[in-house]
Design goal:
Blueprint (H helix, E strand, L loop, with lengths): L5 H27 L3 H14 L7 H8 L3 H13 L3 E4 L9 E4 L1 H8 L5 H10 L3 H17 L29
Antiparallel strand pairs: 1-2
Length: 173
C-alpha cells in the first residue's frame, strides 16, 4: 500500500468511504426493505410518537434534517408500503398526522442501526485530539474538492453517491 503515491492513497480512502455507504444502503434495502431516508423517517416517527400522538411531516423533516418536500415524497412511498398512515384527526383539519401501522411498528423494532450511528459511537471512542485531527483532515478534503458550499445534513445517505434517473426525482428516496 505504501508503494502508491499519497494522492492515490487519499483518493482510494475517499472511494472506500463512498463504497461503504453504497454497500450499506444496498444491504439495508435487501435486509430491511428500506432506503436510508425511509429508515431515518421511520425511526423519527417512532421517537416522536413517544412524545405526541400528532406527528406532522414538518416535525419528521426537522428530525431527519431534510426538507418537508423531500420528506413528503419519502412518506408517500412509506404509505404505499403500508408502513405509515396519514390522517386528519386534530381539531385543526389542515393538520395531517402521521402514525406507524402495525407493519411499520414491526419494521421499526427490527431496524439495524444507521451507518452514522455506528460511526458516531466509534468516533466518540477516539481521543478529543484524534477527533480534531480527523475533522481538520476531512475539512481539508472538502476544501480540496471545492465542496464547501454544498449543504449537507449530518446523516449519511448512500443514495447521494449513486447516479439518479433525472426523470424520477424520487428514485433514490
Amino acid at each position: 500500500m505504501d508503494d502508491y503515491p499519497q494522492s492515490d492513497r487519499v483518493l482510494r480512502a475517499i472511494r472506500r468511504i463512498l463504497r461503504k455507504t453504497s454497500e450499506y444502503s444496498r444491504e439495508l434495502a435487501r435486509d430491511a426493505g428500506l432506503t436510508i431516508p425511509q429508515l431515518l423517517c421511520l425511526k423519527a416517527i417512532g421517537e416522536l410518537s413517544r412524545e405526541s400522538n400528532e406527528i406532522t411531516g414538518v416535525q419528521v423533516a426537522r428530525a431527519v434534517n431534510l426538507t418537508p418536500a423531500t420528506v413528503s415524497r419519502i412518506l408517500d412511498r412509506m404509505e404505499r408500503s403500508n408502513l405509515i398512515v396519514r390522517e386528519r384527526r386534530s381539531l385543526d383539519r389542515r393538520l395531517v398526522c402521521i402514525s406507524l401501522t402495525p407493519i411499520g411498528q414491526q419494521r421499526l423494532e427490527r431496524l439495524p442501526p444507521p451507518l452514522q450511528e455506528q460511526f458516531v459511537q466509534r468516533l466518540a471512542a477516539l481521543s478529543l485530539e484524534d477527533q480534531r485531527t480527523l475533522l481538520k483532515g476531512l475539512e481539508m478534503v472538502v476544501d480540496l474538492m471545492e465542496a464547501g458550499s454544498i449543504d449537507a445534513a449530518p446523516v449519511i445517505f448512500a443514495d447521494e453517491t449513486e447516479p439518479r434517473d433525472p426523470s424520477d426525482p424520487t428514485a433514490s428516496i
